[in-house]
Design a protein that fits this description.
alpha+beta; 16 helices; five-stranded antiparallel beta sheet; six-stranded antiparallel beta sheet
Length: 376
């Protein structure tokens, strides 16, 4: 079937937990009125009649994307016709980006810069390189004079691996980070990330793939099925923050991270998650029957990618961060605590920008749930 009247067609998988089967569908999206319909490929019948789905935008639909449609979480596996492929393939080019150890303290500003320059973040996680992993990743430089110094630097602290999507993503990201040598970047591209946050030719703040082939290899290295890098989470003396999907979609995640860092909090671990309903229900179980918005909270957490952050700091970091997040209702926060995160970035009691751990005894459990259990 081909696209017509602005219709886009995709192949999507849905895991049916009741039957323990992965079911395959054609997913059709009509941007003119934000409606969708689904066709069951195996049974050759309409599964979902054309219906409104305002939470989905064309920008959200690309290969590898996870989208929520009427409480079903679908993974986009491919374009379903040549028309859709021709229209979207160039707009959905992917590349790999990495924040290096020397710039890890600037992740909030760097992520905000990414969003402000029109990129979408498809995947992200902070990891620690082992020597062997660093040698594999930089294998093309093996034997060069600077190789040992590069290995020492890349294993000296955490890095943030990021999968980006945009039109001409490879070339645009390399332009945004600037020349390899940060000293040259300050002359040739003073606004670039390497000019702003790098030091020299090795400690140069950011990495960017140099081709589509490199982007595929490097993305798979960190986010593929065999990726095994060690998380930076320590799951102790910390608390959890979740930047909710609506805030990620609105492109304010970087601003939230900057605000956290400016207020003395250390972002010890970051990772993007696409929550399944069962996981969201399990995570929010303590609110079931207690908070009226429980079901809506689950729906929001599953509505798109969220970013989990292990937050560290001095003293009672749990209490300090809860105070900084503010009241659960952004309208109340705006009147009583206007400098809090929810006052600045929240919309309502469900879309209130961030989740934070309520009880101090739950802090390590919530961090472990995201950075250990969901990563298994």
């Amino acid at each position: 079937m081909s696209s017509f009247d602005g219709r886009y067609a995709f192949i999507a998988d849905w895991y049916d937990p009741n039957a323990a089967l992965t079911r395959k569908y054609q997913l059709f999206y009509y941007p003119s009125d934000t409606t969708v319909e689904m066709f069951d490929i195996k049974n050759k019948r309409v599964f979902l009649k054309r219906s409104k789905c305002e939470a989905i935008r064309l920008h959200d639909l690309h290969i590898g994307a996870v989208v929520n449609i009427h409480s079903r979480q679908l993974t986009i596996k491919d374009y379903a016709d040549t028309s859709t492929s021709n229209r979207l393939k160039s707009k959905n080019e992917k590349t790999f980006a990495m924040v290096k150890p020397d710039a890890i303290q600037e992740v909030g500003t760097i992520i905000d810069t990414i969003y402000q320059n029109g990129f979408a973040i498809c995947n992200m996680k902070s990891v620690v390189f082992s020597r062997n992993e660093a040698e594999q990743f930089y294998g093309e430089h093996f034997g060069k004079p600077f190789f040992n110094n590069l290995m020492s630097f890349m294993t000296s602290g955490p890095v943030l691996a990021i999968e980006l999507k945009a039109e001409s993503a490879v070339s645009r990201w390399r332009s945004l980070i600037g020349p390899t040598d940060s000293r040259a970047a300050r002359t040739e591209a003073p606004g670039s990330l390497r000019a702003r946050f790098g030091f020299d030719n090795t400690k140069n703040a950011c990495h960017g793939s140099d081709s589509d082939q490199s982007a595929n290899r490097e993305t798979d290295f960190f986010f593929g099925p065999t990726a095994r890098q060690r998380s930076t989470a320590r799951c102790a003396d910390s608390t959890l923050c979740i930047i909710k999907p609506h805030a990620v979609k609105e492109g304010v995640a970087g601003k939230i991270l900057v605000a956290m860092q400016e207020n003395g909090f250390y972002l010890n671990a970051l990772q993007m998650f696409h929550m399944e309903v069962a996981n969201a229900e399990e995570f929010f179980e303590v609110y079931k029957g207690v908070v009226l918005e429980y079901s809506k909270m689950v729906d929001e957490l599953c509505s798109g990618p969220c970013i989990a952050v292990e937050v560290c700091g001095e003293g009672d970091v749990h209490k300090a961060f809860r105070d900084f997040v503010g009241p659960s209702d952004p309208e109340v926060a705006k009147h009583l605590r206007p400098q809090t995160l929810r006052a600045k970035f929240g919309v309502d009691k469900v879309r209130n920008a961030v989740h934070c751990t309520d009880l101090p005894d739950d802090a390590s459990l919530e961090v472990e749930y995201f950075f250990k259990i969901l990563n298994q």
